[in-house]
Write a structure and sequence with these properties.
The chain is mainly alpha-helical. 40% of the residues lie in helices and 9% in strands. It has one domain: Nucleotidyltransferase, domain 5 (2-Layer Sandwich), CATH 3.30.420.
Amino acid sequence: MLADALGRPLRFIVTSGYVGDITQAPALLEGQIGNAVLADEAHDSNALWETIAGMGAEAVIPSNRSRKIIIPHDELAYIDRNRIERCFNRMKHFRCFATRYDRRTIHSQGFVYLVATMAALNVDSS
């Protein structure tokens, strides 16, 4: 999921099973503009760093432990990465999202669109 600076969902891609988020990151960032891209260390890959540099944005991603040369990041800016976690937390207030009752992708997508719309309208979801 891609969220804006206020933690509102902008884009999302539903994947199957245990597919890592890093596989969808370039598609989520395609056509986006911004000053910085904040992500956790699971998204630390050279390809993603190049994608972010191509956008003209700063990558605020802590280096993965397996990286031989540690790339420094702005720790003060990284504090705001928790906004995406808060976005997911707001969605989990809805039982169907938290328990994953919906087995069909289209139902899950519809729910995320509904929550994203509510977030955009600044409606309290609790």
